[in-house]
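Inverse folding, one chain.
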């Protein structure tokens, strides 16, 4: 089978041919539940192959208008992958408010939609959300994932942050020390080197000019350059602290994306199954 071999474009073409054939077999104006059910299953599989190919927007064309949990769950996943957070909340609400889905299926949608809160950076709300889900979830596997996420959020919140103010003050006292405090070692040594070079050159040149009875010239030149590097060093120290904090957040969010936006996990939870025939 093309899908199992990872040939998703060929797999999609086969499913589209089958969908076209299923559409022709359904008589106009006649309610054929079996034909409609087959069409919806095929559209779900086409949507999944498009998701596998990272064609999320195109997948929504096929993942619309259906009522099966597989289709609705994959639609929620695809909307999330596009960064459409409001749309994700809407899709989650549709699953939660429907009587067609079991409590366990609704919990799966809640677990996936929890990524929305994390993407928004609302970590306090996310902590409460996943803690509640770890207690009220219907399946042990789901509760375990929610509990793990809850613990990870607490760990992330307890990571010591680097203060931009402290980094700036340190850089003002000793060039490069703010960058070193923010764990940017290469930037720290670079800042210290250039500040020492030009400020030191300005001081030495000034003493030589004064000893020779010349008006300050080269010393002013080196001093201006040294002042530029000194101010840049302070700004750089502040920026290093901000970048360190941002890196920690992005690393945590990537960890969460790998957990919740993992297509293998999404496919498993959607309940889509593949057989040799249709």
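Residues assigned per position:
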């Amino acid at each position: 089978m093309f899908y199992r071999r990872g040939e998703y474009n060929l797999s999609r073409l086969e499913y589209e041919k089958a969908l076209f054939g299923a559409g022709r077999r359904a008589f106009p104006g006649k309610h054929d539940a079996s034909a409609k059910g087959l069409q919806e299953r095929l559209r779900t599989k086409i949507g999944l192959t498009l998701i596998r190919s990272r064609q999320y927007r195109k997948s929504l064309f096929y993942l619309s208008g259906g009522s099966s949990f597989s289709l609705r769950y994959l639609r929620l996943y695809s909307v999330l992958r596009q960064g459409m957070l409001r749309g994700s909340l809407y899709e989650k609400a549709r699953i939660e408010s429907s009587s067609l889905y079991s409590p366990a299926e609704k919990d799966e949608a809640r677990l996936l939609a929890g990524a929305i809160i994390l993407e928004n950076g609302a970590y306090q709300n996310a902590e409460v959300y996943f803690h509640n889900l770890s207690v009220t979830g219907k399946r042990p596997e789901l509760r375990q994932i929610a509990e793990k996420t809850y613990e990870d959020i607490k760990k992330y919140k307890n990571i010591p942050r680097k203060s931009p103010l402290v980094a700036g003050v340190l850089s003002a006292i000793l060039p490069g020390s703010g960058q070193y405090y923010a764990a940017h070692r290469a930037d720290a040594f670079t800042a210290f080197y250039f500040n020492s070079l030009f400020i030191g050159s300005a001081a030495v040149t000034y003493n030589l000019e004064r000893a020779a009875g010349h008006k300050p010239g080269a010393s002013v030149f080196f001093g201006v350059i040294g002042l530029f590097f000194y101010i840049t060093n302070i700004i750089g120290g502040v920026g290093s602290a901000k970048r360190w904090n941002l890196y920690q957040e992005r690393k945590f969010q990537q960890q969460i994306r790998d957990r919740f936006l993992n297509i293998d996990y999404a496919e498993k939870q959607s309940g889509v199954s593949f057989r040799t025939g249709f």
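The mean pLDDT is 85. The radius of gyration is 29 Å.
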